């Protein structure tokens, strides 16, 4: 429960402004690609900071890194309230993204080392379930709060939840298996080993493509639903993100399936689910669009569980650094998608975005099939 709670609280920060994009577009007179930078700035800094946070967590400890990352996250959330221009807001969001990986890579490595092997899959799915819930609550609550008190109020909410995360992270049991790696030569040696690991590189490719899909879909979906014929406000758009709650149900159920069948079978099944859901979103009735989004989102959640399990199966040392490299690729995909999908939406609308994200999800399945099947790791 503690791991799930921490996953929820850190992911509140990641996607919270997504339901606010139409509001921010009107306030700052920005197009889809420009306003998408509010998400993309965070994704870019998360990508850049993840390997560095991985090396830091390997040096000073996973628990300590998680605690201080949560404490420092309070500051940029409070600064965002003062932003008067879109570039300033993007700068603050970039700062948020530098700190978020401290929680993510620290917790993933903590789970891999401190949780007994028979319970590890359950612990990992609990954490991923928390991140799914945080993804929903961030979007939902920020839309709801913004409809009542303006978009600034949403960032006060994030400041408060990060403070709660700091207090809860202090309850993580002390590490017993951690061995520090503080020699820069050791870090560089581990980095070189990871960069020669074909299975790990394939997993990074999968991560890039699955988050490219998710961010491309939800960044542009909010703009689609704010326009004719739907004209949804920020609170109503926040309710649409209730499809994320399916991930809270699906991800724990999929834990035994992942443990029994392995990451590869899980990834291929998840990709098929996403592709079918994305096809359904090409229809016009709002209920069908929501149903399609639910299928697409569930596929991405399951893919993320498979990829995180694959990271830990492919390495035996410097796990935080390996997780950091994965997140470099994962959030790099989100940063690229924030811009590319925005331009595609401006040029071709939703009918152009769907083929783009279906292609990225299909390619994720292909990369996993080729990269994991030929590895020495037991991917299934």
UniProtKB/TrEMBL annotation:
SUPFAM superfamilies: MFS general substrate transporter. Residues 1-377 form the Major facilitator superfamily (MFS) profile domain. InterPro entries: MFS, MFS_dom, MFS_trans_sf, Sugar_transporter_CS. Its main location: membrane. Keywords: Cell membrane, Membrane, Transmembrane, Transmembrane helix, Transport. It is a multi-pass membrane protein. GO terms for molecular function: transmembrane transporter activity. It is found in: Cell membrane. One of its GO terms (cellular component) is plasma membrane. The chain crosses the membrane at residues 35-54, 66-86, 92-112, 124-142, 148-169, 199-218, 238-257, 264-282, 288-311, 323-344, 350-372. It comes from the Bacteria. Belongs to the major facilitator superfamily. This is MFS transporter. It comes from Deinococcus cavernae.
């Amino acid at each position: 429960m503690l791991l799930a709670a921490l996953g929820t609280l850190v992911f509140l920060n990641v996607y919270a402004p997504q339901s606010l994009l139409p509001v921010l577009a009107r306030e700052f007179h920005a197009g889809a690609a420009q306003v998408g930078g509010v998400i993309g700035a965070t994704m870019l800094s998360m990508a850049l900071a993840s390997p560095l946070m991985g090396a830091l967590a390997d040096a000073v400890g996973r628990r300590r890194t998680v605690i201080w990352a949560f404490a420092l996250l309070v500051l940029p959330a409070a600064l965002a309230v003062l932003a008067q221009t879109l570039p300033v807001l993007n700068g603050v969001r970039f700062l948020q993204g530098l700190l978020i990986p401290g929680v993510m890579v620290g917790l993933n490595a903590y789970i891999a080392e401190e949780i007994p092997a028979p319970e590890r899959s359950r612990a990992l799915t609990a954490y991923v379930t928390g991140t799914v819930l945080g993804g929903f609550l961030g979007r939902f609550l920020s839309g709801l709060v913004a409809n009542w008190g303006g978009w600034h109020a949403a960032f006060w909410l994030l400041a408060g939840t990060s403070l709660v995360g700091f207090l809860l992270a202090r309850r993580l049991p002390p590490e017993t298996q951690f061995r520090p790696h503080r020699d820069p030569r050791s870090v560089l040696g581990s980095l070189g080993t990871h960069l020669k690991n074909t299975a790990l590189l394939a997993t990074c490719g999968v991560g890039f493509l699955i988050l490219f899909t998710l961010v491309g879909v939800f960044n542009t979906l909010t703009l689609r639903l704010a326009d004719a014929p739907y004209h949804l406000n920020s609170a109503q758009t926040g309710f649409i993100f209730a499809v994320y709650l399916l991930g809270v149900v699906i991800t724990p159920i999929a834990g035994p399936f992942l443990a029994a069948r392995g990451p590869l079978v899980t990834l291929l099944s998840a990709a098929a689910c996403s592709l079918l859901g994305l096809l359904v979103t090409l229809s016009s009735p709002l209920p069908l669009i929501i149903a399609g989004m639910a299928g697409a989102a569930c596929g991405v959640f399951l893919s993320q569980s498979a990829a995180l399990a694959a990271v830990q199966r492919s390495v035996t040392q410097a796990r935080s650094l390996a997780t950091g490299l994965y997140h470099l690729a994962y959030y790099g995909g989100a940063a690229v998608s924030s811009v590319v999908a925005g331009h595609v939406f401006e040029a071709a609308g939703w009918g152009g975005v769907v083929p783009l994200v279906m292609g990225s999800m299909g390619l994720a399945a292909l990369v996993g099939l080729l990269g994991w099947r030929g590895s020495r790791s037991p991917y299934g």
